[in-house]
Write a structure and sequence with these properties.
By secondary structure, the chain is an alpha+beta fold. The protein has helices at about 60-75, 80-100, 130-145, 150-170, 205-220, 225-240, 240-245, 265-280, 285-295, and strands spanning about 35-40, 45, 100, 105, 115, 125, 180, 190, 305, 310-315, 335-340, 345-355, 360-365, 375, 380-385, 385-400, 405-410, 420-425, 430-440, 445-450, 455-460. Strand 17 and strand 18 form a beta hairpin. Helix 1 (about 60-75) runs parallel beside helix 3, helix 2 packs across helix 3 and helix 8 runs antiparallel to helix 9 (about 285-295). The chain is globular, with a radius of gyration of 25 Å. The termini are close together.
Length: about 500
């Protein structure tokens, strides 16, 4: 299988480790109503249609447990900490008690039949298995094994369970069950929705990356080289097929097989690729994050829009009441008008987002133009301040152009006020380190952290970053099944 040689960065700060960003809130620690709720033993089950019979939903149980661990790590009240830990352990113990052993691995089955409402070919009878659940189980077991509140025997038991889950990810698709396969181009995939026949599946991006977080946790905690190598192979596949995940200037695709834009998953992709950057230290994945943020930035950004003096075109679009994109409405233009300001002015905006088929726009939320949208355009109309920052670790290298091309650099206050401005020009291309990228006063910028420009932001359009899109053989639009001749049952990397 193909491997790039992505290293594993194991000394990340606590906040950058997997699942720390998804804590279970205290008010959600004991769900008792709805389709996902606790039984009498504190186990998180799925109740279809709000019925009285609960079924195992491994990803739901695991993510609830991991969220409880994240909250346990930061909670200061002893009683609350105890309950968070108890909830996490209840999910892990149910997985361990009800697992199936097959082909040398541990498998965690879904207890209900499932047919995907949108994706054809995704239809299962219980029990069925998902690579996303298999990988996330690794994270749950490993993270419990690292908690000092548990006895050494309990911690060893969870680590042994992690070993069983890891074994399942080493098995390819020449037997049942399976969740891992190598495509016809030699790239390794962990399938959230494995197909009915070998080599087929949904090739779901977020499911594969969530499983990779488990490989990261397991390799970091145990030093297991096979897990690190498997992670490298998965990262190589994700990086190679990023151009097909990306849906330029719109929501990224949910999976490779169906290529349906996924509004609810695009921000997950941004967050997951950000973690791949941190975990590998590679600028490849940082570049992917930057592209996804530019394609469809998170719309939950508000603030003050500055208008330059002069004429501006405003629009009304067919959207949800909040201004969010709505399927079937597709941001159709309803109205257009031109306004003119004798001097620079400003207005509050409740949303910044891409309008379908257009650029980035702001929704004016008060004043004479409430409900109208204006396009982002430096320096004619822009949202003041620093928004949607992506921290890099390690720093990225950006290069200033040579030939004495002038580049503007700014020190910016949180509210967008320019504290200091400089213009630099270098005779030859000159590198500098940047620790983050953000939308600064309406345009993507890098923050420099060394030399004469330390603390200054420079427009991304004025410099070049340290990576380019991956190159290689032409990308297929689907994944044909690989040849089965000589394929090993267990991955030997």
């Amino acid at each position: 299988m193909n491997r790039t040689g992505y290293p594993l960065v194991t000394d990340l700060p606590e906040a950058m480790l997997p699942w720390r960003d998804r804590p279970t809130r205290w008010e959600n620690v004991s769900p008792s109503t709805g389709p996902y709720r606790l039984n009498a033993e504190g186990e998180y089950l799925y109740y279809p249609d709000g019925g009285s019979v609960g079924y195992d939903h491994p990803v739901g149980q695991i993510q609830f447990g991991l969220g409880c661990i994240a909250s346990y790590r930061t909670e200061t009240d002893p009683a609350r900490r105890d309950l968070f830990l108890a909830r996490a352990r209840a999910q892990a113990e149910r997985l361990i008690d009800r697992h199936t052993e097959a082909r040398g691995g541990w498998w965690f089955g879904y207890g209900f039949p499932f047919t995907h409402a949108v994706h054809s070919g995704v239809s299962y009878q219980a029990p069925w298995y998902s690579g996303m659940a298999q990988g996330e189980a690794l994270s749950l077991f490993v993270q419990l094994s690292e908690l000092d509140a548990l006895t050494s025997v309990e911690r060893a038991g969870y680590l042994a369970a992690a070993g069983g889950a890891f074994a399942s990810l080493q098995l390819v698709d020449d037997g049942e069950p399976w969740v891992t396969n190598i495509d016809a181009s030699g790239y390794l995939w962990i399938q959230e929705y494995p197909g009915a026949t070998p080599g087929t599946g949904d090739y779901t991006y977020n499911g594969a990356i969530f499983a990779m977080l488990g490989l990261y946790d397991y390799a970091r905690a145990t030093g297991n080289q096979a897990a690190a190598d498997l992670y490298d192979a998965c990262a190589t596949a994700i990086a190679r097929y990023f151009p097909l995940l990306r849906n330029e200037r719109w929501h990224s695709f949910y999976c490779q097989t169906h290529r349906i834009p996924a509004p609810t998953y695009h921000q997950h992709h941004i967050n997951l690729f950000r973690q791949l950057h941190w975990q590998t230290g590679s600028p490849d994945f940082a570049e992917h994050v930057d592209r996804l943020v530019d394609d469809y930035p998170a719309p939950g950004v508000s603030g003050t829009v500055r208008f330059e003096a002069g004429a501006h075109t405003l629009y009304r679009f067919d959207t949800a009441a909040s201004g969010a994109w709505a399927s079937g409405k597709d941001d159709a233009q309803l109205e257009q008008r031109t306004v003119a300001f004798a001097k620079a002015t400003q207005a509050p905006a409740s949303m910044r987002r891409r309008i379908q088929g257009r650029g980035i726009y702001y929704l004016i939320s008060a004043g004479a133009y409430t409900g109208w949208w204006v396009g982002e355009s430096w320096s004619r109309a822009y949202l003041r301040g620093i928004h949607l920052a992506t921290p890099y670790r390690p720093d990225r290298t950006i290069t200033f152009p040579g030939e004495s091309v002038a580049v503007e650099a700014y020190q910016i206050a949180v509210d967008g006020t320019v504290i200091s401005a400089r213009t630099v020009a270098y005779a030859t291309p000159t590198p500098a380190l940047a620790d983050r990228r953000a939308i600064v006063n309406g345009r993507p910028c890098f923050q420099i952290v060394e030399g004469e420009l330390a603390g200054y932001w420079v427009p991304a359009s004025s410099v070049t970053a340290d990576t380019e899109p991956a190159v290689g053989e032409p990308l297929p639009l689907n994944f044909p099944a690989p040849s089965r001749s000589g394929a090993p049952s267990r991955l030997e990397i």
